[in-house]
Specification:
The chain is α+β, with helices and mostly antiparallel strands and 502 residues long. The protein has 18 helices and 20 strands. Strands 13-12-9-10-11-14-19-18 form an 8-stranded antiparallel beta sheet, with helices on both faces. Helix 12 packs antiparallel against helix 13. The protein binds ligand MV4. The site of ligand MV4 has 16 residues, from strand 6, strand 8 and strand 13.
C-alpha cells in the first residue's frame, strides 16, 4: 500500500503529482537542488530533502542521491514525472532493488521502447503499422544505399537511441546517402554514445498524433484517445489539443485499437503514450512509445474526465483498472499552451528572471499547471517551461475563444515569456480552422513574427500604468517619504535601467 511518495522531479510536474497524492491521502516528499530551495514543489510537499547543487547531473539526475532521500524519508514509492530519470531503466531497477515502488512500467519495457530499432521490431511483431524501413541496424553506407533504393526516396536516417530530432537526417537521392549516413551516425555517437542508425521512408509534412494508454498488472489495457501535437518548433511542442481536429472517427478508432494492441503486446503497466506519424491521407505509422506521463497529459484529463496521476498510483499499487474502454468518452475539446521563459522575438533564447508581478487567468474551463509565484526567481539551470495553460469547452471553436481570453488575462511581469507568441499562434487562420501539420510554425513564420503594432504598445502602456499606480500606493503608505522620491523607488524595483520587460 503506497502511503508516501517521493517525487523525483521539480517545477510544475512535481506540484501536479503532489496534488493528486494530497487528494488520495498520500504523504509527499520533495527533492530539490540548491537552486530550488524556494521552489513551489518544496513548499507543497510534506517533507523535503536537498539532494545537491544546481546542476541536474548532481541532483535530479543522480540516482544514488534520490534513492538515499527515498530511504531516509521512508517513501514507499517514487514518481519520476517527465524528463530527468523518468525513462531511465537503471533508476527503475534500483528502486525495485531497494524495495521502493517505481511508479511506471517495468525496466524491461522502458529498455525495449527506449531503443527505437527494438521498438520498431516489437511493433511489427505486434501487428502495429510502422513507417516502411529497415528492421535492424545499418552496418555501412553501402548497405544504407541498397536499403534506400528498395524503400524509395526521400528517406530519413535516424539514430536508434534518438528522439527529439537529434541524429536525424533526410536524404532526397542516392548521392546524399553516404554523407547523411555519416552525419547521422556521428551526431548519434556524440549525443547518445551510440552510433546505431536505421532508415525509414520520409513522411512529408506529417501530423504528430499520440494516444494515451493505461495498462494494469492484470492484463487490462485501455486508451484515452488522441492528442494532436503538431504545433512544434524544433521538436519543442508549443500547443497541444484533444481531440485532434484532423482525425475522422474511423481513423481514430483504428489508431486507438493499434495503441492498445501495442501496449498489450509488451504487457504494458502504467500510463504510456504511443506516438504516431499521420500522413495527409490519414495513413498512420507507429513512431515511438513514451513510457512516462507527458507534459501534455492535461488535455486528455480534461476531455476524458480522468486523473492520470491517480491512476498511475493505483496501478502501481496493484489495483485493476476501474473502467473499461466503453466507459471512456471524449467530452468537448481541450487545448494546452506551454508557457516558457523565452524571448520568442529573439531566437527563443531562454529568459529567466524574477517574477515581479503575476496575474493568472481564472474562470470557467481554465486550468493552470504552473509552479511560479510572485517574487519567485526562475533559475537559469533548468528547462525554460514555467507552466501550462489548459482550457476546456464543449466545442473546439469555444475552446479557442477561451484560450484567447485566458492568454489575454495572463500577465507575467519581470521577464520575457512566449505569451505574446502563443497569442499570435491561436489567431492564425489555419490554426482556427484546424488545418495544420508539423510544418505549421515554419509555414506561418511571417504571421508569427512580432510586429510592434498598436495592440502590443497599448498593452505595454497599460501594464506600466498599473505598475506605476502600485508604486504610488506604496509611496502613500510609507510614512518616511522624505528621502525616497518616486524616482528612487522606481530604481529600487530595478525599473530604472531599462530592465522592464513584459
Ligand atoms: C519522421 C518524419 C518523417 N518521416 N520520420 C521528429 C522527431 C522524431 N521523434 C521523429 N521525427 C520525425 N520523424 C519519418 N519517417 C518527421 C519527423 C518530424 C516530426 C515528427 C513529429 C513532430 C514534429 C516533427 C518535426 C519535424 C520532423
Amino acid at each position: 500500500m503506497i502511503r508516501k511518495v517521493l517525487v523525483a522531479n521539480r517545477g510544475e510536474i512535481a506540484v501536479r503529482v503532489m496534488r493528486s497524492c494530497y487528494e488520495m491521502g498520500i504523504r509527499t516528499v520533495a527533492v530539490f537542488s540548491e537552486a530550488d530551495r524556494s521552489s513551489r514543489h518544496v513548499m507543497y510537499a510534506d517533507e523535503a530533502e536537498c539532494i545537491g547543487p544546481a546542476s541536474s547531473l548532481e541532483s535530479y539526475l543522480c540516482i544514488d542521491r534520490i534513492i538515499a532521500a527515498a530511504k531516509k524519508h521512508k517513501a514507499d514509492a517514487v514518481h519520476p514525472g517527465y524528463g530527468f530519470l523518468s525513462e531511465n531503466a537503471e533508476f527503475a531497477r534500483r528502486c525495485a532493488l531497494e524495495g521502493i515502488v517505481f511508479i511506471g512500467p517495468s525496466p524491461e519495457t522502458m529498455e525495449t521502447m527506449g531503443d527505437k530499432i527494438s521498438a520498431r521490431r516489437t511493433m511489427i511483431d505486434a501487428g502495429v503499422p510502422v513507417v516502411p524501413g529497415t528492421c535492424g541496424m545499418l552496418e555501412s553506407a553501402e548497405e544504407a544505399l541498397r536499403v534506400c533504393g528498395e524503400i524509395g526516396y526521400p528517406v530519413m536516417i535516424k539514430a536508434s537511441m534518438g528522439g527529439g530530432g537529434k541524429g536525424m537526417r533526410v536524404a532526397t537521392g542516392p548521392d546524399e546517402v553516404p554523407q547523411m549516413f555519416e552525419a547521422a551516425r556521428m551526431e548519434a555517437l556524440s549525443t547518445f554514445g551510440d552510433g546505431t542508425v536505421y532508415i525509414e521512408k520520409f513522411v512529408e509534412s506529417p501530423h504528430h498524433i499520440e494516444f494515451q494508454i493505461l495498462g494494469d498488472m492484470h492484463g487490462n489495457v485501455v486508451h484515452l484517445f488522441d492528442r494532436e501535437c503538431s504545433v512544434q518548433r524544433r521538436h519543442q511542442k508549443l500547443v497541444e489539443e484533444s481531440p485532434s481536429p484532423f482525425l475522422d472517427a474511423a481513423t481514430r478508432k483504428a489508431m486507438g485499437e493499434a495503441a492498445v494492441a501495442a501496449a498489450k503486446y509488451v504487457g504494458y503497466v502504467g500510463a504510456g503514450t504511443i506516438e504516431f506519424l499521420v500522413d495527409r491521407n490519414r495513413n498512420f505509422y507507429f513512431l515511438e512509445m513514451n513510457t512516462r506521463l507527458q507534459v501534455e497529459h492535461p488535455v486528455t484529463e480534461e476531455v476524458c474526465g480522468i486523473d492520470l496521476v491517480k491512476h498511475q498510483i493505483r496501478i502501481a499499487d496493484g489495483e485493476p483498472l476501474s473502467f473499461r474502454q466503453e466507459d471512456i468518452r471524449q467530452r468537448g475539446h481541450s487545448i494546452e499552451c506551454r508557457i516558457c521563459a523565452e524571448d520568442a522575438d529573439n531566437g527563443f533564447r531562454p529568459s529567466p528572471g524574477l517574477v515581479r508581478q503575476l496575474l493568472e487567468p481564472q474562470g470557467k474551463g481554465v486550468r493552470i499547471d504552473a509552479s511560479i509565484y510572485q517574487g519567485y526567481e526562475i533559475p537559469v539551470h533548468y528547462d525554460p517551461m514555467i507552466g501550462k495553460l489548459i482550457v476546456h469547452s464543449s466545442r473546439r471553436e469555444y475552446a479557442i475563444e477561451r484560450m484567447r481570453r485566458a492568454l489575454y488575462e495572463y500577465k507575467i511581469i519581470g521577464l520575457t515569456t512566449n505569451l505574446g507568441y502563443l497569442r499570435r499562434i491561436i489567431d492564425v487562420p489555419d490554426f482556427k480552422k484546424g488545418c495544420y501539420d508539423t510544418s505549421f510554425i515554419e509555414a506561418n513564420a511571417d504571421r508569427l513574427a512580432a510586429r510592434k503594432g498598436y495592440h502590443t504598445d497599448a498593452e505595454d502602456i497599460a501594464v506600466i500604468a498599473a505598475y506605476m499606480d502600485y508604486l504610488m500606493n506604496c509611496e502613500e503608505n510609507t510614512s518616511d517619504t522624505a528621502d525616497s522620491s518616486a524616482l528612487s523607488r522606481w530604481r529600487a524595483f530595478g525599473l530604472g535601467k531599462g530592465v522592464l520587460r513584459i
